[in-house]
Amino acid sequence: MTPNQLADALHRQFEQTPYGQSPAELYDPIRYIMSLGGKRMRPLMTLLAASLFTDDWQKALKPAVAVEVFHNFTLLHDDIMDQAPLRRGQPTVHEKWNANIAILSGDVMLVKAYEQLLDIEPTYLRQVLTRFSKTAAEVCEGQQMDMNFESLDTVSEAEYIDMIRLKTSVLLGFAMEVGGIVAGADPVSTQCLYDAGVNIGIGFQLKDDLLDVYGDPAKFGKQVGGDIIANKKTFLLIEALERANGQVRLELLNWLTQSEFDKAEKVDAITSIYDQLGIRELAEARIADYFAKGFANLEHITADPARKDVLLTFAHQLVERES
Amino acid sequence: MTPNQLADALHRQFEQTPYGQSPAELYDPIRYIMSLGGKRMRPLMTLLAASLFTDDWQKALKPAVAVEVFHNFTLLHDDIMDQAPLRRGQPTVHEKWNANIAILSGDVMLVKAYEQLLDIEPTYLRQVLTRFSKTAAEVCEGQQMDMNFESLDTVSEAEYIDMIRLKTSVLLGFAMEVGGIVAGADPVSTQCLYDAGVNIGIGFQLKDDLLDVYGDPAKFGKQVGGDIIANKKTFLLIEALERANGQVRLELLNWLTQSEFDKAEKVDAITSIYDQLGIRELAEARIADYFAKGFANLEHITADPARKDVLLTFAHQLVERES
User: Fold this and answer.
1) Do A118 and B130 touch (CB under 8 A)?
2) Highest taxon of the source (chains A, B) (predicted)?
3) A67 with A178: CB under 8 angstroms?
């Protein structure tokens, strides 16, 4: 199966998934946030992982939906916590309805994610639910760490990598792992799929941090420099704070503590500091490292070479994205 | 086993249950809300239900904890939605920490409730998780209906009963059912346990509505008349609005639309309207009906009579509570 064929099957599966009807205030927000789209990269990786080991990749469809529903549940609740007005260019659930409805429809989405996993073959059910629950708790841990970082003066690179591993990467790891499990993969290959997902996921998040500053405005979906304007503790800022000395450090701290400033001027100034400190090259090297680790994990998997090629080709396209 | 012995075992189980450690802001609120106590009626009913069918009631301990953790998760999130300052006389989680921490630690509590169910024997795992997920979604539906009722002019008795069935009773139903399932009960008995829990649960909620007005202030844990002061659409108010005519109706509507009033005067006046309309007797009759249905469900269960007596005696004590 080609990635496009799997994406079509996934699209049909999402359209057929019933989330619930009444009361409408509880279930409409689920359909709304699921309809906003997104790249659906995680569930597609679930199907690609399953396709490595079986022609019956359809058995991974519901687990793939579970991953995407869970991901959207976290977006829904994170948007309340961040008081974000927009998600994918549309009003967030707490803006379109209200915060109480957003809390409660998020809660029921988490239940619906679990429900999508219950048709898994009994042999794999406990294993998958144990792994999913651990992943879900870790994603919450990562979100809490991210919130904690906002009020810290300094965050180390190791702490930052640990936070993004939990908040964003373990879910890609689980997405790939569960595809392998339900397809009957051997334990070593299953572990490799998980590790690959985590490493590629960390690479993605670091690339997101990089594109915020160095992305092509025509390709990058968000405002370039948004993280800089908001003083967001990204990989770039954390490294800059660790490396900057003397006058450069004073200039950086000065920008970070200004409450009124010209946005374009701040973005230019901090980008220039990053340039002087070699932060771009450092980030690019780290991203390349994590992607390389992820691909090494994939190489380790015992599966038909032609099938592996489909996954590897797709993963290479993914990591080269500019948005 | 006596109910006291089971309650002791349950207490030890709660003390041994690990909820997680780091970050502390995520997991401390779970230990905090679990430490506030409460009657722990639901998990005790899980153990009593299991004891009907097996000496190995210990296998129901983790499912019992799952029920209580889930119940406390709903309290935690409901308190945010209701902006409640106190829970069991102590600051609510969103007051003691903040709303974001309350949302996120609630989310992880729901995951932890599922985790407590994963050690169930594989034969019963899918059944229990399917029933738990359905119950969890229904509790959210009931909470949403309750919020919707606040902005409605009229609510029918049937709509009200349906709301409390979902918001509070199905969880007692599941608590008893899961005890039966893991103890290997036959499907008819399992269904009877569920139905008994739902019926007794509805009776409890109606009794709560009644005690708010007619409870002994020395025994009732909350402020008598609190629902009246807040215009809460309880069974009593819904019935009064359905029955009041002429001058009595005008007086009732007048009290409901006053924005400034003497609290004691309002409680006295509306209680007097309830008295005139026979609302107390009506509520008592409905409560007796639901309890009777619940006990009839219990009678239907196929189990050793001596063991059934333990459950029936305990349930009789519960339904006669005054707080």
Assistant:
1) yes
2) Bacteria
3) yes
Does residue B125 belong to the interface with chain A, where contact is any CB pair within 8 Å?
Answer: yes
Say which residues have a Cβ less than 8 Å from residue B296's Cβ, sequence separation at least 6. Answer: none
Chain A CB contacts of B166 below 8 Å: none
Residues 12-31 of A with CB under 8 A from B: 20, 22-23, 25-26
Residues of B whose CB is below 8 A from A131:
none
pLDDT per residue, tens digit, chain A (323 aa), is 899 999 999 999 999 999 999 999 999 999 999 999 888 999 999 999 999 999 999 999 999 999 999 999 999 999 999 999 999 999 999 999 999 999 999 999 999 999 999 999 999 999 999 999 999 999 999 999 999 999 998 999 999 999 999 999 999 999 999 999 999 999 999 999 999 999 999 999 999 999 999 988 777 666 789 999 999 999 999 999 999 999 999 999 999 999 999 999 999 999 999 999 999 999 999 999 999 999 999 999 999 999 999 999 999 998 887 76
Cα gap B320→B314, rounded to integer Å: 10
Structure tokens at A88: 């994918």
B126 touches chain A (CB under 8 A): yes
Residue A58 domain boundaries: 3-319
CATH number at residue A63: 1.10.600.10
Task: Count how many Cα atoms sit within 13 Å of the Cα of residue B69 in the half-sphere of its side chain.
Answer: 31
Q: Where do the H-state alpha helices sit in B88-185?
A: 93-96, 99-116, 122-150, 157-164, 170-182
Which residue, among B75, B103, B138, would best test binding to A if mutated, counting the most A CBs under 10 Å from its CB? B103
Which of A23, A81, A141 minimises the CB distance to B23? A141
Q: How many domains does chain B have?
A: 1
Residue in chain B lying closest to A119 (CA): B126
ipTM here: 0.96
Number of alpha helices (DSSP H) and beta strands (DSSP E) in chain B: 16, 2
Our CA dihedral for A31, A33, A35, A36, rounded to 10 degrees, sits at 170
- Chain B neighbors of A145, CB-CB under 8 A: 23
Q: Which of B166, B160, B116 is nearest to B142 (CA)?
A: B166
CA distance A114 to chain B (A): 8
How far is the C-alpha of A39 from the C-alpha of A86, rounded, in Å? Answer: 17
The answer to whether A125 contacts chain B (CB < 8 Å) is: yes
